[in-house]
From TrEMBL:
CC annotations in GO: cytoplasm
Entry EC number(s): 3.6.1.9
Reactions performed catalytically: UTP + H2O = UMP + diphosphate + H(+); dTTP + H2O = dTMP + diphosphate + H(+)
Keyword Hydrolase appears in the UniProt entry: yes
Cell compartments where the protein resides: Cytoplasm
This protein's name: dTTP/UTP pyrophosphatase
Annotated source species: Beggiatoa alba B18LD
Length: 192
């Protein structure tokens, strides 16, 4: 059994997909990037912080998993949009270009703290102003890093992915399984 320090329904769905026995834990951390913080450092710091705060909160009974996803476009970190206007601005930046998606995943237990970063490249076809407006009006972008969901309506905008679908969606399952194996937490492959 582990705790997942996350409010994200996508992370729950992905962790359940590999048959991990877990309970959700609610943690609150300041997600403001440091000045000039490199994206890889930012997502690993946030993932670790979520897991550490969760571990303290849970009174150290079980290992705690935390994750953080950011979209990086032209060197700028895009988190979740502030509002619909912010989502439109991000989507018009992503249109017709390739950007990066990074997810940090961390596991904290009594005797160890491990973090891995999963990195991907995603290419969007060009988008019209109307498409961006219609997409934002669906509400899908509002709680997603970079203002889109690979697993949702935005799938029709994506021409190419280089990397891991689960990592883009918010929890890279290859890296997660590695961390869980190190901590002797069972996933579906453990009994093979
Ligand atoms: C790029 C992308 C992100 N996302 C989501 C995953 C995350 O929920 C969210 C990124 O924001 P995060 O700040 O990483 O996570 P969160 O605030 O939703 O959840 P928590 O901190 O409680 O774990 O964006 C998708 O669902 N699909 C995508 O294609």
């Amino acid at each position: 059994m582990i705790y997942l320090a996350s409010q994200s329904p996508r992370r729950c769905e992905l962790l359940a997909q590999i048959q991990v026995n877990f309970q959700q834990l609610s943690v609150d951390v300041d997600e403001t990037p440091f000045l000039n913080e490199a994206p890889v450092d930012y997502v690993s710091r946030l993932a670790l912080m979520k897991a550490q705060v969760g571990f303290r909160q849970s009174q150290a009974h079980y290992p705690v998993l935390g994750a953080d996803t950011s979209v990086i476009c032209d060197g700028v970190i895009f988190g979740k949009p502030q509002d619909a206007e912010d989502a439109k601005r991000m989507l018009s930046q992503l249109a017709g270009k390739t950007h990066q998606v990074m997810t940090g995943v961390a596991l904290v237990s009594a005797n160890s703290e491990q973090v891995l970063v999963n990195q991907n490249r995603v290419t969007f076809r060009p988008l019209s102003v109307l498409e961006i407006e219609r997409y934002v009006a669906t509400g899908e972008p509002l709680d997603k890093a970079g203002s889109y969901a690979v697993q949702g309506l935005a799938s029709v905008f994506i021409t190419q992915i280089v990397g891991s679908y689960s990592g883009i969606m918010g929890l890279p399952l290859y890296e997660t399984a590695l961390l869980l194996a190190q901590a002797q937490v069972p996933v579906w492959t453990t009994s093979l």
